[in-house]
UniProtKB/TrEMBL annotation:
This is SUN family protein. Residues 1-17 form the signal peptide. Residues 93-110 have a biased composition (Polar residues). GO terms for biological process: fungal-type cell wall organization; polysaccharide catabolic process. Residues 87-151 are annotated as: Disordered. Belongs to the SUN family. Residues 124-136 have a biased composition (Pro residues). It comes from Septoria linicola. Keywords: Carbohydrate metabolism, Cell wall, Cell wall biogenesis/degradation, Glycosidase, Hydrolase, Polysaccharide degradation, Secreted, Signal. The keyword Hydrolase applies.
Length: 423
């Protein structure tokens, strides 16, 4: 996986660079993530791996689209034991048709009471129109984003959605985007032997439990002590059975906004959704923080302020987003994937977003060297006051008349609004 902290991809070095014209590679690099190796401890692997599931209802397999629709309209729920079998799955576009288990609402009218006077039977009302299930709005279930977190009061079994955190159920971690457990060798030089809890795990004692925030916000909590060899660790901690803040000096809230100097948006003008997934950083660095842009929808993208956010070994960091092919659900897109499909960490494109040295630096670049896959729609950064131009179309990244199939492009903005437009 490429660095989640370089603002501008191949175009500039890092958010601390004063000039946008540098053509360096990423200054801050992390290990490339791969499928997990076999581990004798069943509950852990050192990096998160893909989770593939099949769904069974009354002994019969049903498609993922039927499951998603059933959950949306309330006709299906997951069993508490979550018993699912592993199986490969292919890409199935989201369906707008109701699943086979859907039962339309019915109405009934009582017959009038007999009286000596002749009466007419009451007319039956027209059946109500079937409600078309609306797409899920991730972040809508979170409330209290501006409320202080009750430090040390909530049980570790409680996901804190009432304090702004957005539950990401598809990770299989009770809504958490990632759970990290430091090993016994951790000391004053940093955490060692950090284990990543896999799907089916939970926020357990002494672990750091990371979470997503609504679009326009980002998590504010990570411990001062980080990995001894450069690993990032993020989230709140489960200590003595209670959830505790790890960075109260940054904020007593779980979520915080990025810079207020500029606004960064993403607009989807396509006929299908586009899942935009932010790297969970600091943390497991998997792409599990969702922004589900629906057709015709405009959403916020958080733009971290380099002077007021996580520092990696003293260096400033920014946000990295993965842009997935149109029609791929956030459940499929915003998690660890495989090379069999161009989504997840194999999504074709990355967006770099960060604010430093008096300007926002915004970039579009190829997800290299992970994949050479290309999106089949256009992406362009537009807005008044933007310095430079940046557009992806037909497999080419163009800054003005200069185009490349591999080198991305960058613009800057000192004030106002910039929008990534999908068309």
């Amino acid at each position: 996986m490429k660095s989640s902290i370089a603002v501008l991809g191949a175009a500039i070095a890092a958010v601390s660079a004063a000039q946008p014209a540098h053509r360096h590679g990423h200054q801050h690099l992390h290990k490339e993530k791969r499928a997990p190796a076999a581990n004798p401890v069943a509950d852990y692997v050192t990096v998160p791996g893909p989770t593939e599931v099949v769904y069974v209802l009354n002994g019969m397999p049903i498609s993922e689209s039927e499951v998603q629709q059933g959950i949306k309209n309330g006709t299906l729920i997951f069993a508490k034991d979550g018993a699912l079998s592993s199986a490969p799955k292919g890409y199935v576009p989201s369906s707008t048709q109701p699943p086979s288990s859907y039962v339309a609402p019915t109405t009934s009218v009582s017959k009038p009471v007999d009286t000596p006077q002749p009466t007419k039977e009451a007319p039956k009302p027209a059946p109500p129109p079937a409600n078309k299930p609306s797409p899920p709005s991730y972040g809508s279930g979170a409330t209290g984003v501006d409320a202080d977190f009750p430090d040390g009061e909530l049980s570790c079994d409680t996901f804190p959605s009432q304090y702004g955190a957005v539950a990401v159920e598809w990770t299989g971690l009770g809504g958490w985007t990632g759970v990290q457990c430091p090993g016994s060798g951790s000391g004053s030089s940093g955490m060692d032997n950090i284990k990543t809890v896999t799907s089916g795990g939970r926020c357990e004692e002494d672990s750091y439990c990371s979470y997503a925030c609504p679009p326009g916000y980002q998590k504010s909590q990570w411990p001062t002590m980080q990995g001894a060899t450069g690993q990032s660790v993020g989230g709140i901690q489960c200590k003595n059975g209670k959830l505790q803040l790890t960075n109260p000096g940054m904020s007593k809230k779980l979520c915080m906004k990025g810079t207020d100097k500029v606004q960064v948006l993403v607009k989807n003008t396509l006929s299908k959704n586009v899942a935009v997934c932010r790297t969970d950083y600091p943390g497991t660095e998997s792409e599990t923080v969702p922004v589900d842009t629906q057709p015709g929808q405009t959403s916020n993208l958080t733009c971290p302020d380099a002077d007021n956010y996580y520092k990696w070994q003293g260096g400033s960091t920014s946000a990295q987003y993965y842009v997935n092919p149109a029609g791929v659900s956030v459940e499929d897109a915003c998690q660890w994937g495989t090379s069999a499909n161009p989504w997840g960490n194999f999504a074709p494109m990355n967006l770099g977003v960060g604010y430093s040295n008096g300007a926002a630096w915004l970039s579009i670049f190829q997800n290299a060297p992970t994949t050479d896959a290309k999106l089949d729609f256009c992406v362009e950064i537009v807005g008044d006051g933007i310095s430079g131009s940046c557009k992806y179309a037909n497999g080419q990244y163009c800054s003005g008349s200069s185009c490349s199939s591999t080198t991305g492009c960058t613009v800057s903005l000192s004030s106002g609004t910039a929008t990534f437009v999908f068309s």
